[in-house]
Each structure stands twice: as C-alpha cells, then as structure tokens.
Amino acid sequence: MSAYEGERGTAMHEGGEAGQHAHPTADVYLRVAAVLVILTVLEVGVFYVPVFHPVLVPALLVLSAVKFTLVVMFYMHLKADSRFFTFLFGAPLLLAVGVMVALLFLFFGALTLRGAAGAG
Amino acid sequence: MSDAPPTGLKSWLTTTDHKRIGLLYFWTALGFFLVGGLEALVIRLQLAQPNGHMVSAETYNQLFTMHGTTMVFLALMPLAASFFNYIVPLQIGARDVAFPRLNAFSYWVFLLGGLFLNASWLVGPLFHAGMLNVAPDGGWFGYANLTERQFSPGPNIDFWVLGLQILGISSLAAGFNFIVTILNLRAPGMKMMRLPAFTWMTLVTQFIIITAFPVITVALVFLLFDRFFGTHFYLPQAGGTPLLWQHLFWLFGHPEVYILILPAMGIVSDVLPTFARKPLFGYTVVVYSGILIGFMGWGVWSHHMFAVGLGPIADSVFAATTMLIAVPTGVKIFNWVATLWGGDIHGTTALHFAVGFIAMFIIGGLSGVSHASPPADLQQTDTYYVVAHIHYVLFGGTVAGLFAGVYYWWPKMTGRLLSETLGKWHFWLQFVGMNLAFFPMHFIGLLGMPRRIYTYSPDLGVSDLNLVSTVGAFLIAVSILVFLYNLWRTRRHGQRASNDPWGGATLEWSIPSPPPVYNFSVIPTVTNRLPRWRTELHGPMQDPPAMPPAPIHVPGGSWWPMVAALGLPVMALAPLTHTPWVAFVGVALLLFGIYRWAFEPFEV
Amino acid sequence: MTHAAHAATAHHTSMGLDSRKLGLWAFIGSECLLFGSLISTYLVYKGRSVVGPYPHDILNIPFTSVSTFDLLMSSLMMVLALAAVQRGDMKWGKIWLFSTALLGLIFLGGQVIEFTEFVHKGLTISTNLFGCTFFVLTGTHGAHVAVGVLWLLTLWVRALQGKLGSANAMTVEITGLYWHFVDVVWIVIFTVVYLIQ
Q1: CB of B413 within 8 A of CB of B22?
Q2: What is the ipTM of this complex?
Q3: Known catalytic residues of B?
Q4: Residue range C176-185: average pLDDT?
C-alpha cells in the first residue's frame, strides 16, 4: 500500500490504536514462561497423584485454560493489543467451543434426552 | 503510472488487478453456470415423462450430483466473488484489495479446482471406464457411508472430495483477503456504518466462509482417509457413525446457505435504493440483521437431519432456532419493501430482478419455515418439495439477485450498458420459466415423488406436473440464451456508459466506466453514507478529477500465484491415481510458487 | 513476506492495524474451527473403539510431558526473538529464531518417535477409532508445527543474509502469532487427549 498511503495520512483510527509499542519486556516473557512451566508440572502432578482423581477432569481443564490464556494474553499480546484482534480470535473460538459442546450433547446426550421424553 | 492497461494473454495470466480478477471470476463462473444448467436440462428431459429412458440411473446420479456441486461451488459462489472483486474495492474507495497476489491465487485455485471436478466427465477411459462414468455420483452433500469405498469403489467420489478440498482453499484465501480489505482499506471517512449494504453483506459472508469452510475441510479429510488409508471415521462396523458426516457437513452446509444468499441480499439492498431514489429503509437494521443471520446460521444445522431421529429435545431446539432465524430475514424483506414504498420507481431490468428476488425469496423462505417443524419435515424430507424450496431460494433468490447485480454493474465493469429491452425479455422469460419449473415441484414432492430417483411410475400421478416443470426449465434456458445474446451484442452495440448511468449513491459511480487501472485519481474523503446524493443534510460529493494530479504507482503482475495454485491439483492427482510421488511434485510446486511470491519485488 | 516495502503500513490503514497481522488473526480464527472440529471428533468418538489398544494402554505421559515442555520453551524463544528483533539486536534475534525452530524440530522428532512406538505396539491409523482420531488430530497439529519450522528457518536464513532487521519486526511478530497459536492448540491437545483419558 506504500504507493498511495501518503494520501491516507488522515485515515481515521476508529479501531482504537492500542499500539504495536506496548509489547512486554523480556522480563515479563520469562516470568510468564516460569508460570507456564509450573502449571505444566502441576498438570502432570495432578494426573499422577491419586488424591486428585475425583477432581481430575475439572482440575486439568482449569489448568490448561489458564495456560492457554497466559500464552494468548502475553505471548500473542492480546492483553495490550487492539481489542479487535481479541474479537477476531475470540468469536470463532467461542463458536468452536459451542460446536464442541453441542456435538457432545447430540452424541452422548441422545439416550438420556430420549429417555427424559419417554419413548423416543 | 500507466493509463493504458497492459494487454495480451500474459497480462491476464499474471494480473493482480482486482477488476481483471473480477472479470475472470465472472466469465469462468458463467461457463460453469452454463455447464450446470445443461446438466439440469438433461435431468428435466429424463423426468419429462414417466419411465424415462434418456439416461441410465448411473448417469442420472452423476448429473444431479454435478448439477448441485457445480451450481453451489462453481457458479453461484464465484459469481458473487466476481462482484466482491470488482465492486467492493470501488465501493470503499480503494485501489485494490489488501493482498492482490493472494487474490490472483484464489482465482487460479478456483479455476483449477473447477476444471479438476469437471474433468471427471471426460477422463473415464483413464480409469478403465467409459466417458461419463467417473463423475461424482453421491449427491451434493455426499452422505457417508454411501460415499465410502465399500459402496462407491470408483474414482467418482475421489474427484468430489479432492475437488471440494481444492475449492475450499480458494474460498478461504479470498475470505481472509476481503475481510482485511473491507476493514483496512476504506477511504478516509468511510466508517463501518457508512459502508454500502453490499460491502457489509460481503464482509459478513467472508466471516461465515472462514469459519464454516474449516469444518467441511475436516469432514472431507476424514472421508479421504477412510477411502485411502483405511480409517473408520464414518464406518459403523468399527464403532464410527455416518451421523458424524451429517453433523460436520451440515455444520458447514447451513452457513453455506447464507454464504450463497447474503451477497444477493447485499446486491438487492444496493439496487433498490438506486431505482427508488430513496435511501435504503432502515440501513442499520439491514446491517445488523445480516450480522445476526451470520451468527444464527450456526445454530440450525440439525434441521437438515430431522429424519435421522435425534430425539425430541434436539429436534425441538433446532426447530425453534430455525423458526427464529426467519425473523432477521423477514426484517430485511420489510426493509426492502419499505424502501420501494413511495419511491420514485425507475423500472430498470436490475430493479425487475431485485423485486423478483424479494417475491421468490419470500416463497422459498415460507417453504423453508415449513421444514422447520419436524413433523412436517418428515413428510418433506428427500422429496421434490425440498427441491422446490432450494430452487426458490437459490434460483429465485440468489440467481435473481446476481442478475440484478449483472444488469446494475455491467456498465461499470465493461463501459457499456446491457440492452434494457433484451433485459426485460430475459427477466420475464426467466421469471415465468422458474415458476413453471419449480412451483409444481411442491406438489410433486407432497404427492410422494422422492428426489434423486432417476424415473417414476405413471401411477404416481405426477406425470403432467413433471412435464410442466420440464417446459419451465427450457423456458429458463431460453431466457439465459437471451442474456448471452445481450452480453454478446453489448460488446459492440451497447450504449456507452457514463461514470454514473443510474444515479447511484455510492463511490463506484464517481469514477469512469470501466475504471482506470488505479480506480480513483484521488482517494475520496467520505462524509456520509450516500456520498453522491443530495439529501436534506448534505450535497453530493465532488467526483475525483478525470486525470490524476500526481503519478499513481500501479503494481505489476506476478506469475507466482498461478504457479503456487497449480501445486494443489497436482497434489490431488496423487491419491486420485494412487501415485504417492506425485504429491511431492505438487508440494514442491506449491512451495516454489510461495517462495518466489514472497521474495519477488512487488510493491503493493 | 519480508521485503521492506511492507514495513510499517500500520499507520495508514483504516483501522490503524497492520493488514498482514489482521489477516493472520482472521486465519487463526479460522483455524479455531479446524482444530475445534478435529477435537470434537476425538471427543465424540472417545470410548467407542471396538478393539484395543486403548489410550491408557499406549499413551506415554512422561515422554509427552517433555514434548509439551519443549514446545512451551519454543514459545518463550519466539517472544525473545521478537523482543530482540524489535530492539534491533539481530545477533540475539538470530540465536532465538534458530532456537525456536530447533525446539520445533525436536518436537517433531518426538512425534516421529511416538508414532513409531505406537505402530510397534499395534496402534495404526486404521486399527480402531482411537487410532483414526488420534493420528489425524495430532498429525494435523504436527503438520502445522512443520510449516512453522519452515517459516522460522526461512526468517533465520533471511536474518543470516542480513535481509531481516528491526524494520521487519512485524514479520517476526506475525510468525510468532502463528507459532504461539500452534502452541496453545498443543496445550489443549495435551490435556484433552493425553491427561484426560
């Protein structure tokens, strides 16, 4: 776009310029990495320690959600970057989760749902 | 800067100009539209009488499969893409799309994918079969496990799976490109809520494309693996279920319906105000209902599967969401009617098609709502009633909307106006033809004739209705011939178009027809939603000067998008011919194209 | 993808955002649905295999934990590479870019070892539904890692040639976005496939 961008000097910034400049420093990156490693150790720990088995699935889901969020927020800069990127990523992500939940319901809920309504 | 555009074959093969790519899309899609139409005519000839014997059952299967696949993926989507390419950059005041070479890549992938699919008609002898023997024959929604190797051993379904996979890449690449273009290349002052309705609907369509196509990609990969690598994704004997295919296909398939209709809705939303000389009634509501349709389109897919027996709760949920999605659609219809109300109506051909769109789409929408009720749907599933519905929506709706766009924008795209007299003939022949062809199908279906069966018995009592339907189909064919004659005649005898033959409100009418390579001699600054109209609040904008005040850099062409695109059909040949090494050639070609593309000096 | 003409277009677009970055985020959004469909399929077919081996017979948690750690560290290398390129420190930029690619390669090597071991233990892509869904899901992820490694090595070579500098920080950032996305997909797969058996 370089050839005519000069004419767009006045282009409006309705997207809210959150800045390419707000990237965290190496120090923050390292601290996030440390947390990620600790969380991974916890995940594997939860998996091996029998005490946690009753809450294994929710505990693991929470831990991995935290890891996911940390990478996306800090390494992919969504925390500081334009909110629009959060939308571009978040809306399809929610859609994907919705599809997953719906399919799980349709496949595994089928019997109970039929049962609940009497003869299916 | 060059005012005279380069000519010659090379300039077209290497073009990255959105206008040329738009024209390439148009002519290619028109070609496929005619092929799909011929397939439909053979189908109708076969069904004109009971116990027809024009084609065999096997050929008939290939005809309806290729008719559906061609019309959806090779005709309607790319015809809409032709307008995305040509018109959207003009409507937002840009000089090209965000990624011109990616745009060329999308086109070449589409062309090659379409040729790959249609080659199946001719290459039977290479697979030790006759001609017209190895075309896809599993229906346009390719239900597993019919499409598994066990029941479809030939290369027919391979062509379908691989062809659709290639075409998906084209749509996805174009999707990212147009999202970025519309969001990021708007002229100064062109706020989102000042975008023309067509551009808005294009944006929504691209969001649906980039989210829905990955799902069919996955579904097709599973089918491909089942057919080639012995997996069991859709095979009940190994614990899998064909139901998974249905879910994945319709998770894509229903949003696809909106991919097909939203661009036409956008065209109509631009055509009606121009010829009623009134702003679009409730612009904001039209935009938001389009967005709402885009989201809600994701929550209704199982209404294609009521006959499967998902249980009363699932059926009720999907019935409710399906009935709800009629609301934003209905809102749009009221907005269009209100736009016409009290307007200064100019009865051009484009307006005829736009109004025809509204009327036919209402009928298609109503029969659609009747499928939303599971008990009614059980009577209608797999009968001609569904065929009637889909054709009212996609032919009466999408095709009419696209023709409205053709008559409206043709002068902008070629510099000459299509004949209005021939246009009216085209419209009325097509309108009468389509109602003759598709209205009887409602009755044919309710009387019990199943779709996709190559013939029927005279005892069914649908012989006369079928004959009427066939007559209607040929009337449509005549109308298309009138249209083709109109296109051909206009090349030399069409009236030359001024910048703005219609008095349009949007930016594309502020520049010459056809536009110069650089589109806008000066990028306009937009101050309102109807920049070229005088309203109570503002006067019309000043059109850009005929000569650019300063030289404008126009990017050169590139061979590499085409080279990269060639890699995909070559890769597809590997499974098709069971020669693994060909895949490496394809990957090498793709990578070579991409690397040359990435590192060539190309200033956008 | 790296030539200078693209540098810093960010301030002249309607949204004030770099077009390539916008496109890449849209691509990542699209990829959510791709992996969403694959993971959904894995989940709905969980426990439906009619013959073994089953996940708990065969999944090697210690081994995969190391792979997971490896990919996490590659993400760290990636952000360090970006920070270095942004401040114009191409010496460390090159080192971190290469380390990222190397850790990606190690991950791929681990996947090759894992797949080979599974095949030896009797799990192929056509053995049962677990084999189908496991190999297609992790294989698709592996293919994404491979593309990322190729991309990173390309940048590294450009940097060695002196054609990648702080003016191309956006290119590195975009590569990083892709790389981190591939990493977060693995975070989900590690939990859903390996730990929740």
Answers
A1: yes
A2: 0.95
A3: 67, 96, 140, 170-171, 254, 256, 258, 269, 303-304, 329, 332, 451
A4: 97
